[in-house]
Amino acid sequence: MAYAALRSIGAYVPQKILTNDDLAKMVDTSDEWISKRTGIKERHIAAQDETTSDLGVQAALKAIERSSIAKEDIDMIICATISPDYFCMPSTATVISKKLGLGNVTAFDISAACTGFVYTLSIAKAFIESGMKKNILIVGAEKLSAITDYNDRGTCILFGDGAGAAIISATDNKQEAIIDVNTGADGTYADLLMTPNGGTGSPHDALDGEANACFMQMKGNETFKVAVRTLTNDVKEILESNSIESSAVKHFVPHQANYRIIKAVGDALGMTSEQVVVTVAKYGNTSGASIPMAINDIYENGSLKAGELLLLDAFGGGLTWGSALVPFSPIDS
Ligand code: ACO
């Protein structure tokens, strides 16, 4: 049987930085409020002509280069995004594939908001274990600034742009394999976090004349509570069902939405501060890109070593959630 291994990681953030002080000039807020309530200090914002696929391509190039796998051997690309280059089609995955010159590969997007990367991981794992694919490029890429209402202080302080990517490959060595990916969703919470305009569920159709921007809306406080509960239960479940103690986890990488959520979940799980990866201060919430960007951070600062166990945990619009137990298994390890 083929197993699926995480071979490499890459990430990219656009140059421009939007600080809390910058936001305080745009809406009624302050660095103090944002820092205290979210832990966010700044976020990166893509240029006007920079698309989600452009961010994804830069992250993918790094992941491919670090994987020891030839670009020609990639046979599938999945992109997790809620801010695609185009509404409906073509998928951002196909645009990234074209920009990378991947040729004939299976390519598609998935929509699972902040859980997107964990969902792509579960799909990649299933395709590889079934023998249908061998080398899969998974990308989480977001230009959330394009769907953020910079008049709404409840949301605009949270989000940033960026991308992360990884190569998942077939291996026959079980030691290298992704141990488990657990995903779920509960649509009854759909209205907590949505982009209500622009789709067929919108009260305004295209002939309405009124351009209804496709902005994110969020019931922040309710989302916060569900997030803490869901993230905590999700981790307990995946650790228990695989008979793994939390102390065996070298790096706990939760979705980077809010430092208070990360802290509450880490504490509830008894994780030490050395185990918990926190990047929210410098990137804000980058939805589907947040987890691979955080993994890339620990890879680039030298704290992620071959063979170490990552525990991923995400939560987002839908509501969706997911967790994964993933050893880092570069090819030359
Ligand atoms: N600056 C100053 N004051 C503010 C701001 C701001 N930016 N935003 C809200 N306030 C005010 C409110 O108006 C309210 O004032 P009031 O008491 O006079 O009514 C007060 O601050 C408290 O508001 P709350 O919404 O209760 O603040 P809370 O502590 O919950 O923090 C936040 C808000 C940061 C949004 C938090 O709820 C949060 O992080 N929620 C979860 C976000 C999340 O995890 N999303 C999931 C993933 S995102 C995805 O899937 C794309």
Strand order of the largest sheet: 1-7-6-4-5
Q: Could you give the distance between the termini?
A: 21 Å
Low-pLDDT sequence parts: none
Strand fraction:
15-25%
The number of helical elements comes to: 10
Description:
It contains 10 helices and 13 strands. Helix 7 runs parallel beside helix 8 (259-268). The strands form 4 sheets. Strands 1-7-6-4-5 form a 5-stranded mixed sheet, with helices on both faces. Strands 8-13-12-11 form a 4-stranded mixed sheet, with helices on both faces. A two-stranded antiparallel ribbon has the order 2-3. The relative contact order is 0.20. By secondary structure, the protein is of the alpha/beta class. The protein has one domain (1-333): Thiolase/Chalcone synthase (Peroxisomal Thiolase, Chain A, domain 1, 3-Layer(aba) Sandwich), CATH 3.40.47. The structure holds acetyl coenzyme *A (ACO). Acetyl coenzyme *A is lined by residues 29, 33, 37-38, 113-114, 153-154, 157, 193, 220-221, 223-224, 227, 257-258, 261, 285, 287, 316-317.
